Amino acid sequence: MFETGKYEKIIRFLYRFFIGSTLGIILLIVAVNFNFLWLFGGMPSLYELENPKSQVASLIISEDGQEIGKYFRENRNPLEFEELPDNIVHTLISTEDARFTAHSGIDIRSMFRVVFTLGTSGGGSTISQQLAKNLFHTRSMEFGEDDPVYMGLLMKINGVKTVVAKVKEWILAIRLERRYTKQEIMAMYLNEVSFGNNAYGIQVACRTYFQKDLKDVSLTEAATLIGLLQNPSLYDPRVRPERTLERRNVVLGQLAKYEFVTEEDLPKLQAEDLNLHYRVENQNTGAAPYFREAIRQQVLSAIKELNKDRPEDQQLNLYTSGLRIYTSIDSRMQKYAEESVKEHMRAEQKLFYDHWRGRNPWVNEEMKEIKGFLKDAMKRTQRYRDLMSAYNNDEFKVWEELRRPIKMTVFTWDGDKDTTLSPMDSLNYYKRILNCGMMAMDPMNGHVKAWIGGINYKYFKFDHISQSKRQPGSTFKPFVYGAAIENEIVTPCDELVDEPVTFGEEDGLSGGTWTPQNSDGKYSYQNMKMRRAMGLSINSISAKLMKQLGPDKIAEFAHKCGIESPLHEVPSLCLGASEVSLFEQVSGYSTLANGGEKIDPILVLRITDKVGNVLREYSPPVKAAIKPETAYLMTYMLQGAVQEPGGTAEGLKRTSIVSGNEIGAKTGTTSNYSDGWFMGVTQKIVAGVWVGGDDRSIHFRSLALGQGAKMAMPAFAKFMEKVYADQSLAIEGYRKMPFIKPENFAFDFSCNGRVAVDSTAIIVP
């Protein structure tokens, strides 16, 4: 009897404990739900549940529909449930919540299992609870700091806060289950959760660790990704591959347990390697990094304007709102431009190293080494200024620090290289590297199709398209000839004598005279037609046109075409002495190719929100800048560089891009060969290339190596060959063709008379 009474007391105690605990939990849930006495903090509203805040990356999309980059703080690219492959769905359910389809947000059976096994058999959180935790940051201070209403008095107490947060997750999980379908919850969870290494969401994680789209994921890769969810840091495959492999095999075991994998296949799957192809996405990676930075300020400005009319809780953010930024860039042309620049500049850099072997390449106008060049260059750096501040202007200590070797990674054309160099050694290394800018544009609609601001964005952030201004040399001459034709001073058939031209006080010079030399220092003293003179880039002829026109008319014509930089109205303007950007040069040449109509280059076409609502659209203004007859005659003149014997771009004939095509060109080389330019013009593509050292004192020592035809033209030729070989681009109109002639325009291109049928037109089938 005694023993029976003892057991009855134990049973009654357990029964009362169970009832009391259950009532206590219910009361706690009710108290948390209604924020009793403001102890627990508020809960997300219905609006917040239906419109949860999530940091979604804004995507940059090319005109041909390809994603070329992102702006983000948390790298996240959401997918719909229908886009999730079965491999991922089955693996997630088997590993994280086997009864996902059977419960309503809280799995009572799993909770009791956790209690009775003390957590050794796994956690009790459902996918819905984990979504609530990740979506509303219930375990972090963010949950309260983002909105003080969420932070109750008890949530400031360690330990208690965890209990309250857990209860809030239960409530939120049930509410989420009421608001969303199971499929939506699963997709939201996989889009929200972190996979480590700034990879948020399953799509980004797949790209980060395997460099593939989620639709192509294998079963073992799916197991690796889902395995990371338990603890992305602990199972980071980049630093702990053995733990990642062990965790992946546990996940594969779960798949076998729930019969998504056969017992026969399991050992073979578990024996596979991880096969990682790891690369973190950031501002330095992906296509068109210079372009992405170039449009960032434009997009930020648009967002600022849009936010003026939006409620506080609906403000747009470039890095978190999941915007879609549709651009003019063509992913194929961008790829071809990047490949072409890389191929050409790798060879050009080797040539430069060989040219200066055993000598320093920083020289003055007399080609003598500039003493103290590196030391002066270092003094202009932020590193030097920071050290001077840190060491209280003690130069001895500063230079001691600058000469101390440290471990670093440097750029090479064979990839990043880990090495040990002092900051001074590093400066010495980088000053010897040539850089490049390349831009391609469709002159008929203003769409910028390719944008290469430099050779490597990670190491060279300066953009040689929009930020850099250099002397354009002879690539400015088409504006000189164009102004002369526009003002009816000459026609392409007229002749001038190649002879010295001297400018003096009557031309605005003071304190002396100036006689421009031809590139070879010689004059032929022969009559030369305008087309041939421009094709051979004869300086004396440009000087004669300057004499007749005056610099003001030339500057005016260049500005009409698209040059926006101030132009010094002095005689040397005829040889390209005023600095301009590559962006302006491409814009100006495009006016010539577009029948005299100026269209500002356009980079962004439209911006939409994450569900596709158009927020802003862009269309470039079109302005009749110069006579269409002048523009067409200038395309004929520009072809002279390719077609005239001895033309500066005659080398293009050795490529496949000339045959069956009308293509204009102009090379440019500045004093001491500091800048090599090339401008290529077709009816559908105008492209410009600049090559040189970031410091003007770093360059080749001879015209044979330093001219634009050698330094810049090959990159253009390679690019156009790739474009013309792409049949998908040909279908879209980017193929060989003649320039479009104005209606009712007649000119005797044989130069025998003033009216004749245009004999240069090429009929392209």
Automatic annotation (TrEMBL):
UniProt-annotated location(s): Cell membrane
Catalytic activity: Preferential cleavage: (Ac)2-L-Lys-D-Ala-|-D-Ala. Also transpeptidation of peptidyl-alanyl moieties that are N-acyl substituents of D-alanine; [GlcNAc-(1->4)-Mur2Ac(oyl-L-Ala-gamma-D-Glu-L-Lys-D-Ala-D-Ala)](n)-di-trans,octa-cis-undecaprenyl diphosphate + beta-D-GlcNAc-(1->4)-Mur2Ac(oyl-L-Ala-gamma-D-Glu-L-Lys-D-Ala-D-Ala)-di-trans,octa-cis-undecaprenyl diphosphate = [GlcNAc-(1->4)-Mur2Ac(oyl-L-Ala-gamma-D-Glu-L-Lys-D-Ala-D-Ala)](n+1)-di-trans,octa-cis-undecaprenyl diphosphate + di-trans,octa-cis-undecaprenyl diphosphate + H(+)
Protein name stated in the entry: Transglycosylase domain-containing protein
Glycosyl transferase family domain mapped to chain residues: 65-255
Matches recorded under InterPro entries: Beta-lactam/transpept-like, Glyco_trans_51, Glycosyltr_51/Transpeptidase, Lysozyme-like_dom_sf, PBP_transglycosylase, PCN-bd_Tpept
Transmembrane segments: 13-40
Pathway: Cell wall biogenesis; peptidoglycan biosynthesis
Penicillin-binding protein transpeptidase domain residues: 438-684
